[in-house]
Please model this.
Amino acid sequence: MASSSFDLAQPPKITSAKILIAGGFGVGKTTMVGAISEIAPLSTEELITARSEGVDDLSGVESKATTTVALDFGRITVSPKLILYLFGTPGQERFRFFWDELAAGALGAVVLADIRRLDDSFPTIDFFESRRLPFVVGVNYFDGAHRYRVADLRGALDLEDHVPLSYCDARNHESCKQLLVGLTEHLLAGLESLPEQPISGTPAPPAIR
Ligand SMILES: Nc1nc2c(ncn2[C@@H]2O[C@H](COP(=O)(O)OP(=O)(O)OP(=O)(O)O)[C@@H](O)[C@H]2O)c(=O)[nH]1
Ligand SMILES: [Mg+2]
Model:
């Protein structure tokens, strides 16, 4: 009989991690959660109302009829021991109050930016920088837009050198996966750069003078 690596008597201890997919209005957050989640994503789409007029910049996404009013939720099983939970934020300014709730307990974030409306990304980048929550930036490329050099995009977004940035297509599974791999590497690099802590209960070695 084939042996199974899953022992019913001792099921593996499952670790879960919460990741945010954030960004300004209409940058592709709901699209990304849908492209990468292994379950049918939970989404909270509602028709865009007149309240959006003059507030949300619809240029480039004029055909957009709905917007996220609470969150998007998706899941990825990385291994039997590790599950990622994805939380997409709402993009409209008037739902910004909800972001702190969504960010609670998150390990990090993917910040999506629309190549045609980079300015809209500043509030999102400020949000994560001010809370010292690690993030990577995915510049969602919309057809026909100008393709800037990555170095120019970094300059335009005034990103700190250590923050990863790459082009992406929020509709494409593989492209979204690369963003999450980039975020994982970024999180691990952050851990490695921390000063070594003495294991609790172990006295710290005497300082050398
Ligand atoms: N051409 C193109 N269209 C895209 C891409 N990503 C998203 N879209 C389209 O852009 C529109 C906006 O996408 P959403 O995923 O709803 O954006 P969102 O960021 O969740 O929007 P809000 O929740 O309202 O802030 C949708 O019509 C998508 O199909 C892309 O990479 N290329
Ligand atoms: Mg959305």
Q: What stands out?
A: The helical segments are 29-36, 99-103, 122-130, 150-157, 173-192. The first strand starts at residue 15 and ends at 23. The CA atoms of residues 17 and 84 lie 5 Å apart.
